From TrEMBL:
Keywords: GTP-binding, Magnesium, Metal-binding, Nucleotide-binding. One of its GO terms (molecular function) is GTPase activity. GTP binds at G27, L28, Q29, A30, S31, G32, K33, S34, N106, K107, N108, D109. InterPro entries: P-loop_NTPase, Small_GTPase_ARF/SAR. SMART domains: ARF, RAB. Mg(2+) binds at S34, T52. PANTHER family: ADP-RIBOSYLATION FACTOR-LIKE PROTEIN 8 (PTHR45732). This is Small GTP-binding protein domain.
Length: 158
């Protein structure tokens, strides 16, 4: 990674951590949630092959505003139907009706990964017309589009 790009990313990360917000990261098994949490917190990709039992907890603030991210393995085509259903079930909950949502198609470094348009289609994101949804294609491994993800989170902080 170039040093200018790295310092930009470090700056975004520091902005992000001066804000108080609560982010919930949801996704199917092995979509890369823990890896992303590590990348956001430390900037380092650590090969995380240990599945999380229960939930992983980074930091919490009492004044936190609630935002949500939904992680999809964009290279695992067999799981997209299940991801679509789980997302639909989640978004039908009345308590989540006003929560901004960012969908991340992770692992875009893999050769068969869907494009961002492919993720939008596979998850039928256009059917949620009443809700604020953004969708990015990212790679926790190669740190692709982690900058715009941090920007989105910063913008949605209180
Ligand atoms: N190629 C590639 N592999 C990734 C990426 N992100 C995560 N992985 C790999 O995907 C596997 C699962 O990652 P985890 O972060 O453990 O996934 P998780 O969503 O936390 O999984 P559970 O805790 O079981 O729900 C690991 O082997 C990671 O190294 C990525 O951007 N690219
Ligand atoms: Mg995990």
């Amino acid at each position: 990674m170039s040093s200018i790009f790295k310092s930009l990313l470090d700056w975004l990360r520091s902005l992000f951590f001066t804000q108080e917000m609560e982010v919930t990261l949801v996704g199917l098994q092995a979509s890369g949630k823990s890896t992303l949490v590590n990348v956001f917190a430390s900037g380092e990709f650590t090969e995380d092959t240990i599945p999380t039992v229960g939930f992983q907890y980074a930091a919490k603030s009492p004044r936190a505003k609630f935002t949500m991210k939904f992680v999809v393995d964009s290279a695992d085509h067999g799981k997209l139907e299940a991801a679509k259903q789980e997302l639909r079930n989640l978004l039908e909950r009345p308590t989540l009706s006003n929560v901004p949502l960012l969908v991340l198609g992770n692992k875009n470094d893999l050769p068969n990964a869907l494009t961002v348009e492919g993720v939008i289609d596979a998850l039928e994101l256009k059917s949620y017309s009443q809700r604020e949804i953004a969708c990015y294609s990212v790679s926790a491994k190669n740190q692709i589009n982690i900058d715009i993800t941090l920007q989105w989170l910063t913008k949605h902080a209180p």
